[in-house]
Structures are given as structure tokens and as C-alpha cells.
Amino acid sequence: MNYSGFRVFWEGLTGNAGWKPAWRDPDPRAEYDIVIVGGGGHGLATAYYLAKEFGQRNIAVVEKGWIGSGNVGRNTTIVRSNYLLPGNEPFYEFSLKLWEGLEQDFNFNAMVSQRGIVNLYHSDAQRDAFARRGNAMRLAGADAVLLDQDGIRELCPFLDFDNARFPIRGGLWQPRGGTVRHDAVAWGYARGADKNGVDILQNCEVTGFQIDNGVCKGVETSRGKIRAKKVAVCVAGSSSRVMERAGMRLPIESHVLQAFVTEGLKPIIPGVITFGAGHFYVSQSDKGGLVFGGDIDGYNTYAQRGNLPVVEDVCEGGMAIMPMIGRARVLRMWGGVVDMSMDGSPFIDKTAIEGLYFNGGWCYGGFKATPASGYCYAHLIARGEPHPVAVDYRLDRFRHGAMIDEKGAGAQPNLH
Ligand SMILES: Cc1cc2nc3c(=O)[nH]c(=O)nc-3n(C[C@H](O)[C@H](O)[C@H](O)COP(=O)(O)OP(=O)(O)OC[C@H]3O[C@@H](n4cnc5c(N)ncnc54)[C@H](O)[C@@H]3O)c2cc1C
Fold first, then answer.
1. Using an 8 Å Cβ cutoff, are 364 and 411 in contact?
2. Which of 91, 221, 256, 279 could form a disulfide with 294 if both were Cys (CB 3.0 to 4.6 A apart)?
3. Ligand 1: which of 304, 364, 393, 406 to mutate, most ligand atoms within 8 Å of CB?
């Protein structure tokens, strides 16, 4: 079914009785060419691009829960491409460009809102580091503007510029960054994949892999065995547990990341603001709630709930840059399990087991990567070669000392 303004108008007049489910609910078939494990943003995007851009047919996405139940529906919706290193920046810029055309591409309103993102700096040394990052971004074709204190005052007059410990001196501004409605992304990709013939199998948990003489020949699931020529795993926070079933140990730890939403307020936050001296970032949803978060919890877990010390830490960060947030009432908070690699950068690679592919290690930065991750993973699966912007996301990079130690943004595993 295609969506259009006319269709919305017509359905409104006729009792909204003509809408059909956005994707089918098929039974698993005995065999597919490609089985994608994990129906999060990355898995659904991979299926969508495999079918639409790489001409692959006979694909299934196998999801243990329901579409959007993982981190794709739990994140704080920020998209940006403000990275530093050559292994990362072109990939994230590619992703931002895909975000810019995504809604037209899959004909679904994902509320892509490029209101900008500003990273605040609080010292001269931090300003120099941000200037360097802004230059790296521009060299990769992204947009970056280094603002001084007056520039930030104009953008966000409500900030506490004269905080005694963390005075705000300026910020690195990426006008094309912003937010996207996270679950609409999952729905849009699911609908687009289904339209291109992909079977989306919900409530179907992968419990094992059929591996014969070093070749992966399918998966075992809670709904029976499924044979496949290629199996592509992208299960985010469950990466270590799922790949363990294939006998692989990954350079990944799982941590909880929490998010918070306040009551609806009048528009105040212009885009996304991040604190440069602690872990706090905030944006405002279209309904008016302040959406904010901070650091991951400092221990390994697969439980999707967080702990009070991080709540306190995040609130302290918020109070340091915008004390008015102390008057807003928090309505909801939740946690998601994120898969943190040991250099804070992801993997999109083949494994040593023929026919088995792995995509993970996104930590708290994988939502913005969804389109590029799906596209590059589809490229690797269909063509057998990595996409040019994802060549460094190799599983063996620690063995070869080729880490992508992104300090510009992302996780810093040594802190946890
Ligand atoms: C609170 C929070 C805030 C965040 N904020 C941001 C942000 O602002 N910007 C940003 O870029 N990133 C953010 N992230 C990170 C981002 O959400 C993740 O990196 C990204 O969503 C991970 O990819 P995914 O969407 O495919 O994961 P998921 O949606 O988690 O998909 C993985 C799927 O695999 C399924 N699965 C697991 N095991 C199995 C199995 N055995 N069989 C079948 N299926 C299985 C799960 O049920 C799940 O649906 C945030 C994360 C959290 C938790």
C-alpha cells in the first residue's frame, strides 16, 4: 500500500477502514537464500537494500521479539556525522546522506528533522580538538561550523555560560545533524522490505547455527530449522550471546544505556546539545518532551534496565549546563543493551565460518548508522566485498593493530 496525502484524506472520510497491515506475517519457509538474524534497524535496512538495490530475492529476517522491540525503538533518535577518523567519518557521512533521502525512498514519514547538533566545548584545548574534528568532517564532505561563545549564545541563550566549573566557551555545530523518529525507521524499512518480497518472521528466536565443516548452512530457531546459503547476524546488544552459538568469541561487551523523557514543554531546544565536560545530551521531541541521556552503566549486563548512579550522573550533567531542566518532571525512562567494541567502532565483516556474516559493535552510536550499515552489509553479502566506506570495520583489526580509536565521538571502553 502506498501512502499519500490524498489517501490519508480519503481514509479519514471513509472511517479509516481501508488501511491494510504494513507488512505480512508469513510462516517460515524451509529454505532461503539469505537469512538475516535480528529485526532491528540494521537487520531490516540490510534486507531492504539487499532486495531493492542488490537484486536479491528469497530473504528472511528472523526476529526473536517484535519489530522495534530492541534498540531501534529505545534510542534517543540522534543522527549526525561528526566523527574524526578516516575509517569512520566517510561512513557516517554516507549514512547522513541516506537519511536525507530516506522518506522519499521508502515512502514513509520517519520525521527526519535536521535541526542541528552542537557539541559544547569548555576549554581552549577542547576547542582545538573540536576545530580539528570539524576540519576532518569538512574534508570528508560533511558540514561543520566552529562557534564561539557568542555563536552559542545566539543558538541557545538559556544555557549557563558562567558555570564556575564548566564555563561554556563555544561549540562545534553540525547543522545537518538532528533527530529521526526511531520506531518509524523500523516500520518504514520493514514495510519496504516486505514490499520487495522479504519474509519478516517475528517471535522467531535463533537458538543455534547449522555449521558443517566450517560452512554455515542455516539456523535453528524456536519455529524450526531454516536452511540458508548465507546467514547474516545483526543482533546489537545480543551479539556475544548469539555468536557464541556459532563458537565465536567477540571483542564486544554488553552494557545498559538509559534514556529519559520529560513532560511536554514549549519549544526551547533548537536541535541536539551535548555537554563537553561530562555525559549529558538533550533534544526536544515534536511532542515537546525533553529527550536526554548520558553515559552507559559501568558494568556488563543483558538486563534492559539501568541503575540509579547513572541517573544521578546524567541529571548532574543537565543541571551543569541548563539549570532550568531541574524544574521539568521526568515522565519515562528506560534502558537498552548496547554492544560496545573495544575501540568504540563497529564491525561489518565476514567471519571465518563460510556463509556466516557479522554486523555489530555499534554501542550507543548505531541508530545514526542504520541506513549505511544496512547498505554496506547488503553490499558485503551480495558482492562478497566490503563497501568502500566500510573497509576498516573488520573483525580482525585488533589482531593487526588497526583499531579505529575514535576519540571524536563514541564510546571509550577504557573508562568502563
Ligand atoms: C537508550 C539508548 C539511546 C541511544 N541513542 C542513540 C542515539 O541517539 N543515536 C544513535 O546513533 N544511536 C543511539 N543508540 C544506539 C542504537 O540504538 C543502536 O546502536 C542500534 O539501534 C543497534 O542496531 P539495531 O537497531 O539493529 O538494534 P536492535 O533494534 O536492538 O536489533 C537487534 C534485534 O536482534 C534481535 N535478537 C536478539 N537475539 C536474537 C536471536 N537469538 N534471534 C533472533 N533475533 C534476535 C533483538 O530482539 C532485536 O530486535 C542508543 C541506544 C540506547 C539503548
1. yes
2. 279
3. 364
Q: 10 Å Cβ neighbour count for 337?
A: 23
Ligand 1 centroid from CA 46, angstroms: 14
- Which residue type sits at 362? W
Q: How many CA atoms lie within 13 A of 320 on its CB side?
A: 22
* Residue among 367, 368, 377, 406 whose CB has most ligand 1 atoms within 8 A, to mutate: 367
The one-letter amino acid code at 181 reads R
pLDDT tens-digit map of 210-234: 999 999 999 999 999 999 999 999 9
Q: Where are the alpha helices (DSSP H) in 69-167?
A: 89-106, 124-139, 149-155
Going from the Cα of 350 to the center of ligand 1, the distance in angstroms, rounded, reads 20
DSSP helix/strand/coil, 171? strand
Kindly report, residue by residue over 285-319, the tens digit of the pLDDT: 999 999 999 999 988 999 988 899 999 999 999 99
Residue 336 Cβ inside 6 Å of ligand 1? The answer reads yes
DSSP β-ladder status, 145-148 and 170-174: antiparallel
Asked whether 206 lines ligand 1 (CB < 6 A), one says yes
Grid coordinates belonging to 281: 545530551
